[in-house]
Design brief:
The chain is mainly alpha-helical and about 350 residues long. It has one domain. It contains 15 helices and no strands.
């Protein structure tokens, strides 16, 4: 196959994957938004409960980023504290790893069933919620179809003469591979799609397990960067939640990256092939984040509260012209310097008619 034609097929398959993931998320949001908001309000009762709720919502929405945006809105209104929001995000990361685990199995036999059921519900459903449920089923089937298309599009790459050189370089330069995984995940704004793509490449024999681990850990860093970027103009509480999650996720990814490549442990126990090892490691990584990081949400909350400061007051956020008007009121307007004579009561020297001192 021509190289440019191969890239076209791969780009189309990845685009379908991203669109299908978004289709599932929008279907859940439109049909279950009141229930999701009610559940999020209940998450403030404890960190462990918040993590469980975050995992459940992420499984439904197939996106931890969507959970981050929901949490940002509640944190801005004062419903969620920063500490509870960070716990919620740790659970959401684990929930998105569960989604990858489920979708990584061979579910091709379900594709026609999901398409038929989803189409009937969407076109013939008597209520809005039924039609949105059909949208979700169609979205799941399109995810499975896109993964099959990615596998078919990348199959000719196994015979490429350039592939061993690229893979060999990235295996030796794990930092570059780590950054590529982070950049790609941030670019597509979906950690689920990014991990599924890496696992599909591994199943095709294009990505060995060692390289897949570096790309996987980079994808986890990129997943944390997505929420930071999307909340950069939001309330300070929302930005603190995103930065707290990135602190945990990014630090853990770097620690595991260097530990793995320095110690070179055997990971055969994680699965029979490279794809299963990568997916299982992703689930194990995010599960360990909950176990080890959930007790540390208090200290990290205090850290991000000290580092992430409010950008503007509430009045300035509601009225952007207030900041510029305040700046104009307090600005010092530079004028040409001119000497002025002191008053007669403050000086014993007489003044001449032109205001200058004279002896």
């Amino acid at each position: 196959m021509n190289f440019y034609l191969l890239l076209l097929h791969l780009a189309g398959s990845v685009t379908l994957l991203l669109w299908a993931v978004r289709m599932v998320r929008t279907g859940i949001e439109r049909s279950q938004e009141p229930a999701l908001r009610r559940v999020l309000r209940e998450s403030k009762s404890g960190r462990l409960r918040a993590a469980g709720i975050g995992a459940g919502i992420a499984v439904l929405l197939q996106s931890s980023t969507a959970v981050a945006m929901l949490a940002a809105g509640f944190a801005g209104s004062g419903v969620l504290t920063v500490q509870t929001g960070i716990a919620l995000m740790l659970g959401a990361d684990f929930g998105s790893a569960l989604v990858v685990q489920i979708l990584s199995f061979d579910l091709s036999l379900l594709v026609p069933v999901l398409l038929l059921a989803g189409g009937l519900m969407f076109f013939k459903g008597p209520t809005r919620d039924t039609r949105q449920a059909g949208r979700v089923l169609i979205g799941i089937s399109l995810i499975l179809i896109s993964l099959q298309m990615i596998g078919q599009a990348t199959e000719p790459l196994r015979d490429s003469a350039m592939l061993p050189t690229v893979v060999g370089y990235l295996r030796g330069d794990f930092i570059t591979a780590f950054l590529i995984g982070a950049a790609f995940t941030w670019l597509v704004h979906s950690s689920v799609a990014s991990i599924l793509l890496i696992a599909t490449f591994a199943a095709q024999g294009l990505v060995p397990a060692e390289l897949g681990v570096s790309l996987l850990l980079g994808a986890n860093l990129g997943g944390g960067l997505i929420a930071v970027g999307l909340t950069r103009a939001s309330f300070v509480e929302a930005r603190r939640i995103a930065w707290g999650n990135l602190t945990f996720r990014g630090t853990a990814a770097l620690v595991v990256l260097f530990t793995f490549h320095l110690l070179d442990p055997a990971i055969g126990w994680l699965g029979a092939d490279a794809a299963r090892q990568i997916v299982n490691l992703h689930l194990l990584f995010n599960g360990a984040l909950i176990i080890f990081c959930l007790p540390l949400t208090g200290p990290v909350t205090r850290l991000v509260e000290r580092l992430v400061k409010p950008k503007q007051t509430l009045e300035q956020q509601l009225n952007p012209l207030a900041a510029s008007a305040s700046a104009l009121d307090t600005a010092v307007i530079a004028r040409p310097w001119r000497w002025r004579a002191p008053r007669a009561s403050c000086c014993a020297w007489p003044r001449s008619s032109n205001g200058c001192l004279s002896r």
